[in-house]
Design a protein that fits this description.
alpha+beta; 5-stranded antiparallel sheet; 6 helices; globular
Length: about 170
């Protein structure tokens, strides 16, 4: 099983961290409601999303444009630093969970929000050609187009409401 990613917007870190173990896309069954979410399956922040942002910014694909701050489980206390500290963690420690939450930079939000709607189909075609998507079919291309459009829309709504973007991931 791989990692799964959900991008969402929230007013601040406190709001973004409500029920951190619960999917942001499933509302009431886990007691989490009110998130505007894009389910992005395996579109990770540091690789595939970074390349989409680089394409939108007309930057080299190796440029690291997506920067994040790890919020869960490391916020506000840091991760264990030694083997002894890791071994001493209780069984219910969030550090032993497969869930993580990251806050994306304002720059990422604004680059996505600023994507030109008229150019987006061409940008997605370039994105679909990255190495990570080499095994995709034309059906997958439609999925990528949908995810890109949804991420741009989410970013615009976040910017409009003075909110940040966050990524919830689960292995």
């Amino acid at each position: 099983m791989g990692l799964f990613f959900e991008y969402y917007r929230a007013a601040d870190r406190e709001a973004a961290l409500v029920r951190p173990e619960a999917s942001r896309a499933i509302e009431e069954p886990h007691g989490v409601s009110g998130f505007d979410v894009v389910e992005a399956k395996w579109i990770d922040t540091w690789g595939t999303l970074n390349k989409l942002v680089a394409i939108i910014a007309d930057a080299d694909l190796s440029t690291k444009l997506v920067t994040t701050v790890a919020l869960y489980p490391s916020y506000p206390s840091p991760a264990p630093q030694s083997d002894e500290e890791w071994d001493a963690l209780p069984d219910d420690s969030p550090y032993l969970s497969s869930v993580g939450i990251e806050e994306l930079s304002v720059n990422v939000r604004d680059l996505l929000a600023g994507a030109d709607d008229a150019r987006l189909p061409m940008l997605v075609e370039r994105w679909a050609k990255i190495e990570e998507f080499s095994a995709f079919s034309s059906v997958d291309m439609e999925y990528l187009r949908s995810v890109a459009e949804d991420l741009v829309g989410l970013s615009r709504r976040a910017r409009e409401h003075g909110q940040q973007l966050y990524c919830w991931s689960c292995a």
